[in-house]
Amino acid sequence: MGLVARILRIAGVPCVLDIGSHADTILAEPRRVAGGRHWTVRVVRRRFGTHEEIWIGPADDDGHGLRVRPGSDERRLAALAIAQSLRADPRSPLTAGEADAAGLADGLDHD
User: Fold this and answer.
1) Which domain holds residue 14?
2) Engineering a disulfide at 104: which of 10, 32, 36, 99 sits with its beta carbon 3.0 to 4.6 angstroms away?
3) What is the total count of domains within the chain?
4) What is the rounded distance in angstroms from the CA atom of residue 109 to the CA atom of residue 55?
5) Is pTM, for the whole model, over 0.70?
């Protein structure tokens, strides 16, 4: 996830990386909202023993973004996060169709 955060920053998308014992989370693309700033994009990698779950979506929507196959290349994760940040309303999740149109659907988990 460190590479994902680094690529986001290079692309001009501000972000923070929180590395935890069972989950790594990137919050990205702050937007001004009434009285402050609010993160609009979240990338999460959760670990449950040998199982891993990855998703990318709106920061305020826990688990309703695009599911990404475990072991996906971090460059693809960064590209999906950038696509999410570029939505007119990044609080709405990127769709599989939009990811496909951007050439990023190969790593999505459709199960």
Assistant:
1) 2-107
2) 99
3) 1
4) 9
5) yes
